[in-house]
Specification:
By secondary structure, this protein is α+β, with helices and mostly antiparallel strands. It contains six helices and seven strands; from the N terminus they run ααβαββαββααββ. Helix 1 runs antiparallel to helix 2 and helix 3 packs parallel to helix 4. The structure holds adenosine-5'-diphosphate. It is found in: Cell membrane.
Length: about 240
């Protein structure tokens, strides 16, 4: 036995990544193929079954499109010349707007949003589109894993030179050993369940890369069975900072 060198580790990760991508693409393709075969074998003529089977192939196509989109984005972030489009943003207002977009979907699941924002204005230098993508992923996870009637809490506070944002839910939680792994590409706590709710398993990996590109940190704290909090810190920007 010898220690795995850095190069070997990179090669191992690369192989694992390619294997994961292949698997994630093959699953919807196999499903689509079998449904298309069934349609060809007669299901198409059945007015009850045909729309259902066509719907399955639509959903699987959508899943592949989401996956390829996420993969392309990760490969862009990985490239050396990746750049954020930074501007100074007032975070209380920005978060209010973000939460508002979710309120309709939340009320369908009877989920309540609690926001505890800072009393004073808080500024950060962010890439609006990218940060929105990060928060959309985390808030939709919080809602996805919340029980019916649950509460999602969003807090923003100033902590030294950082702003700290947290999104908490009262969902199933994440076992301790998985709390750092959820930020790895394709890691899911429960593969079958996560897939059935439509995720690609890349959302938090992308979120982590984007938050790090902003000079911030992201991590999870969770009590299994009780709920999860995702924390994000970002450098604070003074109001007059040039964007
Ligand atoms: P997915 O597309 O599967 O949601 P993510 O990268 O967003 O991928 O999340 C990775 C995994 O982390 C999820 O599959 C799920 O197992 C776990 N996870 C993320 N957020 C939560 C949460 N709020 N509560 C419980 N589990 C979560």
């Amino acid at each position: 036995l010898h220690d795995v060198t850095e190069e070997e580790k990179i090669e191992q990760d690369r192989r694992e990544f390619v294997a994961n991508v292949s698997h994630e693409l093959r699953t919807p393709l196999t499903t689509m193929k079998s449904y298309l075969e069934a349609l060809e074998d007669g299901a198409l003529a059945d007015p009850e079954i045909a729309p259902r089977f066509l719907n399955v192939t639509q959903n699987e196509t959508d899943r592949m499109i989401r996956l390829v989109k996420d993969l392309l984005q990760l490969s862009k972030i990985d490239s050396d010349d990746y750049q954020l489009n930074l501007e100074t943003v007032e975070m209380n207002r920005y978060l209010d707007e973000t939460i508002e977009r979710f309120e309709m979907i939340a009320s369908d699941k009877n989920i309540d949003f609690h926001r505890k924002l800072n009393k004073k204005s808080i500024y950060a230098k962010i890439d609006r589109d990218k940060m929105t993508q990060v928060l959309d992923n985390i808030i939709s996870n919080a809602m996805k894993y919340s029980p019916e009637g649950g509460t999602v809490k969003i807090r923003l506070l100033l902590q030294g030179k950082n702003i700290r944002l947290s999104i908490s839910d009262q969902g199933m939680g994440i076992p301790r050993e998985s709390q750092t792994k959820i930020f790895e590409r394709f890691y899911r706590v429960d593969k079958a369940r996560a897939r059935s709710v439509g995720g690609t398993g890349l959302g938090l990996a992308i979120a982590k890369e984007l938050i790090q590109a902003h000079g911030g940190h992201i991590w999870a704290q969770s009590e299994y069975g009780k709920g999860t909090t995702i924390f994000i810190t970002l450098p604070y920007a003074s109001k007059g900072a040039k964007s």
